[in-house]
């Protein structure tokens, strides 16, 4: 590659090389090589009232080379840092799966691999992102994205311009890097964004031309959304001032996905400021809807133990402290059922797109 | 003898009426056979597996005793052949002094013929009722005689078939022939039905293995029903000294024993009889006793009544006596136990401890010996055992119990030895999971009188003093094991750690070199140095920790024991109150 390395990339490389120099210094001094990194668990995240997102606290943990419990991870951290540096130097972008395979090899004189599965390298990447405080995209890494989007807007991706009204039944696959230097949003005419939990439901909305009839953008992360869908949603909200509505199953998992879209997740807490969209509102489903829309009881599902446990946990999250949410948790526990979006099909295939959602929007029946 | 005939005989007694003399005579005639049948359990002859082991025990004990007496290094061979369903032939052969025409009948054909009852002496064969019991069992299960070939040093060898006349308890010899071949020793061949050979921890093979461990001067060969031959090699050429017969100590004597002794004594007065026949019985004690009893101690001991003997025994409990002599005990000895366990168990590490003699219940001298073998061939494998990482069956703890050098294979749960082993906090000695560890614990109690829990004589009663001695011995050995196991574990861990860090050092060096542009080799070199330095610091810490242990005295262990005992008592009380409370609720 002869492409010139950008200034930004040079800065990124310097942060990574600094990590190397710090460890090198420790080794020269004969100290136990130690890498300091932020703690990424529930004990070290907080809900920032100002930005309304989850943020990483300042608790640090040490990863030591001479420590039976740390040694392997320490080695892996060094390998990942060095590899990312190499990727940037070569002006390439790789997926986190590429990175895993690039680094996987058998350690000399052993039958042990540097990484046994991608599940080992992914968290190390997040550790490095958090510790050098850089976004995955800035590190030239991409996660596989899986979400799709459709609506009245155009996207300029490199030299190509894509009209999102002409994407057929599958929609446009959101690429992993949606940073402004890569993706430009053009000719946006929609009035709001509908973030749908499930792919099957998104397809229903697309087939029924919901976005055309209601002048909106429909997007799904196919379950738990990856960063790209969330980052794109945030950009649409910030750059075009579009309100965001989330349409989820009425169950703890759906509520959790909503909270990730709105406030962010614990594991990515270090970069939620650029991923979360705190203005998101929860349009449905709610347990209240069962009565309001006279949904037959037989399509509801009984809560299991795990559901109840999860509800109790979420009830205590600071970002779910609003009265409306507390009521919803209590109601779900009291009624002892949950229900899926598809349950609305019991009232007709197009009930969700033609009756339920328009009514919800009209009545502004949201949870905050 | 057929059942039918016997019944007919019994009926005939009834018919003869209540002539006291007659009944007494008939009773004597019937007594042995009846006693035998009714007390099969006590004699160790119930249970198909147990009976088989007991028979082997009787033959082998007989051989060991005879050889010991004649100062011969024993060579014993036992062979078991399966003849049919629950039908076996047992052949046992030794190189002992042999028996004469006169003694062979008594040895194999007269029940309770031995001199083993009422003797204050450490004796191997306190269980069972000797070879004649086996002859009897063979006779009543197969109707066959027991065949004996025996030869002494002087005379020629003879072959004879022996049965027992159950009415007279007298041997019946048949087909007595002199052999042309020379043979010294005794070989016995007999058949049994209703017994069973299995390869279990309570079977003859294990019995012989343990016998070999407790008798390192014996060479024992075993051929099992499938023809597999096992040889337990002799590890010591020293024939153990015979235990000494000791006089009974006043604190350990029973009314029955006093009566028995009083019938045999040559003394003319009870006071001189007591002084002569009992240990530690002096003039002072006689004076004290005179004041306590209601009869004249000058009376003829032959006239001593049961009630009077009872007064004497009660009186003894109030008199201070010097503890009994302990010099008649003959433990196996540390060196000998070591040699035999190393040879037969083949452990990686072994510690033994023979304690000094002690006295329990005021009147009985006893001595405890323990050995703890760790690693290697120690412990036992069980069928369908779990497998370790390398696919080897996980070995379990094996507890070998002995009383007067004879293995105890049954009733392990109720035995003081099992309780003592289980009461040890093995964790303190570096053994985390004592149940699942390759460890063989050997405990032998020698005494003039082993306090068995029941007539089966397979479990030792947990007298306080006995438990304490066992625990102290085990704890002492435990500490030595800890030193070894601990050291080994630390060494292993250190090697493991070094390997782990070294493994990653090169990878880290390559990555750091990649990030910094510095050459890889010096970074790697430096990392390896850091690993060595760090591990040395850890080692120093461990050494300090170990030094602490080295300085713990026996007294501190004893204190520890007292503490645990108190705890146990408290726990028991708690349990009791709990049970009580539960009862209340109900």
Write the layout of secondary structure elements.
The complex is a heterodimer of chains A (368) and B (586).
Chain A: H1 7-29, E1 34-38, E2 45-48, E3 53-56, E4 60-64, H2 71-89, E5 94-95, H3 96-103, H4 118-132, E6 141-142, E7 148-151, E8 154-157, E9 160-163, E10 172-173, E11 183-186, E12 192-196, H5 199-207, H6 210-213, E13 216-220, H7 227-240, E14 244-247, H8 252-262, E15 281-284, H9 287-292, E16 301-302, H10 305-315, H11 323-335, E17 337-338, H12 351-363
Parallel strand pairs in A: 5-6, 12-13, 12-14, 14-15
Antiparallel strand pairs in A: 1-4, 2-3, 7-10, 7-13, 8-9, 8-11, 16-17
Helix pairs in contact in A: 1-2, 2-4, 3-4, 10-11
Chain B: H1 3-15, H2 20-38, H3 48-70, E1 75-84, E2 87-94, H4 101-109, H5 131-142, E3 146-151, E4 158-165, E5 170-178, E6 185-193, H6 204-214, E7 219-223, E8 229-232, H7 255-264, H8 270-277, H9 283-292, H10 306-316, H11 334-344, E9 349-354, E10 358-360, E11 364-374, E12 398-403, E13 406-408, H12 416-423, E14 439-447, H13 464-516, H14 520-550, H15 554-585
Parallel strand pairs in B: 1-7, 12-14
Antiparallel strand pairs in B: 1-2, 2-6, 3-4, 3-6, 4-5, 7-8, 9-11, 10-11, 11-14, 12-13
Structure, described:
The complex is a heterodimer of chains A (368) and B (586). Chain A has 368 residues and is of the alpha/beta class. Chain A has two domains: 7-142, Winged helix-like DNA-binding domain superfamily/Winged helix DNA-binding domain (Arc Repressor Mutant, subunit A, Orthogonal Bundle); 148-363, Dna Topoisomerase Vi A Subunit, Chain: A, domain 2 (3-Layer(aba) Sandwich), CATH 3.40.1360. In chain A, 40% of the residues lie in helices and 17% in strands. Chain A has twelve helices and 17 strands. In chain A, helix 8 links the parallel strand 14 (244-247) and strand 15. In chain A, helix 3 (96-103) crosses helix 4 and helix 10 packs antiparallel against helix 11 (323-335). Among the domains of chain B are: 48-232, Heat Shock Protein 90 (2-Layer Sandwich), CATH 3.30.565; 250-316, Helicase, Ruva Protein, domain 3; 334-465, Ribosomal Protein S5, domain 2 (2-Layer Sandwich), CATH 3.30.230.10. In chain B, 45% of the residues lie in helices and 17% in strands. Chain B is built from 15 helices and 14 strands. Chain B has an eight-stranded mixed beta sheet. In chain B, a hairpin with a 5-residue loop joins strand 7 (219-223) and strand 8. The longest helix of chain B has 53 residues, at 464-516. The chains are: A alpha/beta (368), B alpha+beta (586).
């Amino acid at each position: 590659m002869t492409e010139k390395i950008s200034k930004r990339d040079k800065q990124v490389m310097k942060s990574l090389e600094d990590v190397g120099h710090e460890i090198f210094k420790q080794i020269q001094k004969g100290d136990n090589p130690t890498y300091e990194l932020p703690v990424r668990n529930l004990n070290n995240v907080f809900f920032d009232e100002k930005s309304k997102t989850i943020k990483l606290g300042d608790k640090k943990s040490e990863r030591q080379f001479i420590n039976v419990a740390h040694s392997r991870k320490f080695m892996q951290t060094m390998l990942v840092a060095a590899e990312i540096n190499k990727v940037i130097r070569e002006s390439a972008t790789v997926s986190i799966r590429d990175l895993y395979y690039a680094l996987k090899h058998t350690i000399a004189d052993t039958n042990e691999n540097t990484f046994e599965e991608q599940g080992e390298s992914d968290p190390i990447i997040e550790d490095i992102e958090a510790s050098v405080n850089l976004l995955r995209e800035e590190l030239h890494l991409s996660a596989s994205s899986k979400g799709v989007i459709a609506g009245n807007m155009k996207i300029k991706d490199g030299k190509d311009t894509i009209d999102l009204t002409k994407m057929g039944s599958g929609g446009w696959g959101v690429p992993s890097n949606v940073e402004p230097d890569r993706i430009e949003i053009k000719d946006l005419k929609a009035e709001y964004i509908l973030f749908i939990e499930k792919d099957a439901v998104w397809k229903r909305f697309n087939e029924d031309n919901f976005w055309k009839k209601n002048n909106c953008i429909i997007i799904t992360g196919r379950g738990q959304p990856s960063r790209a869908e969330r980052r794109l949603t945030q950009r649409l909200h910030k750059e075009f001032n579009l309100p965001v509505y989330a349409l989820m199953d009425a169950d703890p998992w759906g509520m959790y996905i909503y909270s990730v879209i709105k406030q962010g997740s614990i594991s990515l807490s270090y970069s939620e400021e650029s991923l979360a969209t705190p203005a998101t509102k929860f349009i449905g489903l709610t347990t209240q809807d069962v009565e309001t829309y006279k949904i037959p009881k037989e399509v509801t599902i009984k809560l299991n133990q795990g559901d109840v446990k999860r509800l109790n946990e979420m009830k205590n999250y600071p970002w779910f402290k609003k009265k409306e949410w507390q009521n919803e948790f209590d109601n779900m526990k009291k009624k002892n059922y949950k229900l899926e979006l598809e349950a609305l099909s019991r009232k007709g295939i197009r009930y969700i797109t033609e009756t339920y959602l328009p009514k919800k929007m009209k009545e502004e029946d949201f949870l905050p | 003898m057929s059942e039918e005939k016997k019944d007919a005989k019994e009926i005939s007694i009834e018919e003869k009426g209540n002539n006291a003399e007659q009944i007494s005579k008939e009773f004597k005639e019937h007594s042995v056979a009846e006693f035998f049948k009714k007390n099969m359990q006590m004699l160790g002859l119930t249970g198909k597996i147990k009976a088989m082991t007991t028979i082997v025990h009787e033959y082998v004990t007989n051989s060991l005793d005879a050889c010991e007496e004649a100062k011969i290094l024993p060579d014993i061979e036992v062979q078991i052949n399966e003849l049919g369903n629950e039908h076996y032939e047992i052949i046992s052969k030794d190189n002992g002094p042999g028996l004469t025409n006169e003694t062979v009948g008594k040895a194999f054909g007269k029940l309770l013929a031995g001199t083993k009852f009422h003797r204050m002496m450490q004796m191997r064969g306190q269980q069972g009722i000797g070879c004649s019991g086996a002859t009897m069992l063979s006779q009543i299960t197969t109707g066959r005689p027991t065949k004996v070939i025996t030869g002494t040093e002087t005379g020629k060898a003879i072959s004879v078939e022996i049965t027992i006349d159950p009415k007279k308890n007298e041997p019946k010899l048949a087909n007595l022939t002199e052999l042309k071949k020379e043979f010294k020793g005794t070989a016995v061949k007999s058949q049994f039905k209703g017994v069973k050979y299995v390869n279990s921890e309570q079977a003859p093979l294990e019995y012989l293995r343990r016998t070999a461990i407790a008798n390192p001067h014996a060479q024992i060969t075993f051929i099992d029903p499938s023809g597999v031959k096992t040889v337990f090699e002799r590890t010591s050429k020293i024939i153990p000294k015979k235990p000494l017969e000791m006089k009974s100590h006043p604190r350990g004597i029973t009314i029955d024993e006093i009566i028995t002794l009083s019938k045999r004594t040559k003394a003319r007065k009870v006071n001189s009889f007591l002084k002569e026949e009992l240990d530690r019985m002096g003039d002072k004690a006689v004076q004290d006793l005179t004041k306590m009893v209601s009869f004249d101690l000058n009376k003829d001991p032959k006239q001593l009544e049961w009630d009077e003997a009872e007064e004497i025994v009660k009186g003894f409990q109030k008199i201070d006596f010097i503890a009994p002599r302990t010099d008649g005990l003959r433990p196996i000895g540390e060196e000998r136990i070591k040699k035999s366990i190393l040879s037969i168990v083949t452990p990686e590490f072994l510690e033994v401890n023979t304690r000094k003699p002690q006295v329990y219940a005021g009147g009985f001298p006893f001595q405890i010996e323990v050995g703890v073998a760790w690693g290697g061939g120690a412990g036992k494998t069980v069928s369908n055992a779990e497998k370790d990482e390398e696919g080897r069956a996980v070995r379990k703890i094996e507890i070998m119990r002995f009383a007067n050098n004879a293995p105890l294979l049954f009733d392990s749960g109720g035995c003081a030895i099992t309780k003592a082993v289980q009461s040890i906090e093995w964790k303190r000695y570096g053994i985390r999971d004592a149940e699942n560890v390759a460890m063989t614990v050997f405990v032998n109690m020698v005494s003039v009188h082993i306090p068995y829990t029941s007539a089966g004589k397979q479990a030792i009663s947990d007298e306080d003093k006995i438990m304490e001695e066992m625990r102290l011995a085990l704890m002492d050995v435990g500490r030595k094991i800890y030193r070894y196991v601990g050291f080994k574990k630390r060494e292993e861990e250190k090697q493991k750690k070094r390997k782990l860090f070294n493994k990653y050092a090169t990878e880290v060096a390559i990555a750091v070199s990649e990030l910094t542009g510095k050459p890889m080799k010096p970074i790697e070199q430096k990392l390896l140095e850091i690993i060595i330095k760090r591990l040395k610091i850890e080692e120093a810490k461990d050494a300090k920790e170990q030094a602490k242990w080295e300085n713990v005295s026996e007294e501190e262990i004893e204190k520890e024991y007292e503490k645990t005992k108190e705890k146990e008592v408290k726990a028991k009380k708690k349990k009791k109150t709990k049970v009580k409370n539960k009862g209340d609720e109900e």
